[in-house]
Known about the structure:
Keywords: Receptor, Signal, Transport. InterPro entries: DctP_fam, TRAP_DctP, TRAP_DctP_sf. Belongs to the bacterial solute-binding protein 7 family. By secondary structure, the chain is of the alpha/beta class. It folds into two domains: about 150 residues, 3-Layer(aba) Sandwich (D-Maltodextrin-Binding Protein, domain 2), CATH 3.40.190; about 140 residues, 3-Layer(aba) Sandwich (D-Maltodextrin-Binding Protein, domain 2). Strands 7-6-8-5-9-11 form a six-stranded mixed β-sheet, with helices on both faces. Helix 6 links the parallel strand 6 and strand 7. Helix 2 packs antiparallel against helix 10 and helix 4 crosses helix 13. The longest helix has about 35 residues. It is globular and about 65 Å long.
Amino acid sequence: MKKMxxxxxxxxxxxxxxxxxxxxxxxxxDSQGGAGGDQEKYVIRAGIGLNDQHPQFKGLxxxxxxxxxxxxxxxxxxxxxxxxxxxxxxxxxxxQLGSQEVTCPSSAPITxxxxxxxxxxLPFLFPTEEVASDFVDGPLGQELLDGLEEHGxxxxxxxxxxxxxxxxxVREVQTPADMNGLKIRxxxxxxxxxxxxxxxxxxxxxxxxxxxxxxxxxxxDGQENPVPTIYLxxxxxxxxxxxLTGHVYSPFVLLMSKIFWDxxxxxxxxVVEDGALVARDEQRRISRxxxxxxxxxxxxxxxxxxxxxxxxxxxxxxxxxxxxxxxxNEIGAEYVEEVLAExxxxxxx
Length: 349
Ligand code: KDG
């Protein structure tokens, strides 16, 4: 009996040792304390909703490559796509809790944290992609990123998603009247809901990961996203019509958990910051290239692709001007004026 007890104790001690060795050798996201100085290893789990063909994932690959190389392997970046780690809102919450390190949502769901991000949802705001990227890379874009810190998030950079366009499975849309009664999936965002209501559609907010099945099963008639997303997420399989409305330019925002950030030594913070910008430039290049190539790809995949004339686009703008008025006050009239003036300045350079 005594021998048995001894054996049990020995086994317990042994399994404890094995468990401890296992913990210390595996690089883990828990290593964010930074207490081990130079030798400490860090793991960044970066998750997104889009798939691994999308320019957003290509950008993450550049980020991973840069950060792992420039940190001499002290940081490992693990990539997850297709909502493997959750939807945009869940992943942002995980960052705030420190249980995930990086995500890259559209700006639209960030409005639940800071409603100033709603400026990106105001329809027909940016005349060109260049003006949009100059704006986000400028002082007002930076001010928005800085404001995220008090919410447990570090805004590293703006990446490009591109102009959003409408697809549906019911009819070709050329005028606001054609929108009547269409069930459209929107991002989880008040401005988008109001915009589609103003057009007489029936908007349904839904996480991105549920969208394909919802279209396949007819739960919604359509959705709105940039061309690379429409093509690369295989929407032509379940949607017949694309209208190039370009109604909103909502950027991606590369976010890091502030808990994780605060635990990184300064030299590694610099590597992460630089990596976010190097990847941003390449990601934007790929996004613009794909947008150009894949518009034709949508036709080849069997969709009817409708380009709007400037008058037709103006009709959409006029039909939704009430959305701009409504949210001007909601966001803050003075702030919106400042944003509009900056866009005007950048447009006339
Ligand atoms: O990875 C980002 C996606 O999760 C999401 O933000 C894509 O624009 C998007 C949408 O429509 O939800």
